[in-house]
Specification:
seven-stranded mixed β-sheet; alpha/beta; six-stranded parallel β-sheet; single chain; binds NADP nicotinamide-adenine-dinucleotide phosphate; Quinone Oxidoreductase, Chain A, domain 1
Amino acid sequence: MLAIVKRVYGGPEVLSIQEMPIPLAQEDEVLIKVKANSANPADWHILRGKPYFARLSFGLFKPKDPILGSDFAGIVEAKGSKVENLNIGDRVYGENLGNAFAEYLVAKENILAKMPIGSSFKEMAGLPIAGLTAWQALMEHGKMQKGERIIINGASGGVGHFAVQIAKAHGAIVTGICSAKNRDFVLSLGADEVLAYDENDLQNFKDQNDLILDCHGNLNHSDLKGLAKRAVLIGFTGMGHMMKLLISNMFSKYSLKQFTAAANSEDLESLARMVEHGDLKTRIHKIYPADQIPKAIAFIEKMRTPGKVVMSWEQ
Ligand SMILES: NC(=O)c1ccc[n+]([C@@H]2O[C@H](COP(=O)([O-])OP(=O)(O)OC[C@H]3O[C@@H](n4cnc5c(N)ncnc54)[C@H](OP(=O)(O)O)[C@@H]3O)[C@@H](O)[C@H]2O)c1
């Protein structure tokens, strides 16, 4: 099979497309023929081995796993004897931290869900990390309630554009923060109001909201406290900023939660149901053929993508 391979830490230039052996599904795994992937900031963090502490998981001096990639959608081609809920021919999507940018991958069924009828591989490949993060931030960590005022910083990005749609579908009143050029995009997702950070002073919008999701990760403790009664931190703009924020919060009664999203079938199924009911749509900004995955990673590393960048293995 063809795969996008990294042997050393570095930028997209260290990636190459290479022949690799097709992995063998263990008894609790399925073998998936990958049809599409999407790109996430996690991919370039893992590729560069930054922040450095991440190398404790991904390999101290060089990457442990040669194949890059997390988000995928495809078709089950083989299954182990202990797989209960999936069958050969099922169209599935999910997230594996590593090994996804390849023609085949193996995965356990508890990080997969079936794709809704009528959905495409490209749209479902755009959903896993960003959709799960938005879902878990709002439902689990943010404890969003119907009718609450939610403010989403970074509303045009991968996570943010799903968060706007999920919050609206659950009856929240949503304000999105993005650049002025993405105002119409965020309104088209259903946001009630948009604040352009390059035109408005956020200080003028204090004390108006119940919950803020900081999907970009650039707001400081007093910004968050001023903008909403409680906050969930998703984005990462640097270790220094994050440490400052978390330390400030140790001396405060303010509710600030920070988390790393984890894949599970239940949440993927909830997202798939929203897609099926027409409440959630992956807004695809750009599609690259799979052999141009290094270009896709270089593109998203600029952090300017409205919606998602998707890569396709289909001709
Ligand atoms: N905690 C977790 O489990 C988790 C999971 C996934 C992602 N993340 C992190 O969350 C962040 C966002 O991920 P993503 O997939 O949404 O990334 P993304 O799709 O690359 O985000 C791009 C967006 O960032 C926005 N942006 C850039 N500068 C901004 C600013 N100063 N203020 C507000 N928005 C700004 C851009 O909007 P404009 O062009 O309109 O400014 C662009 O639409 C990343 O730091 C990622 O590492 C964390």
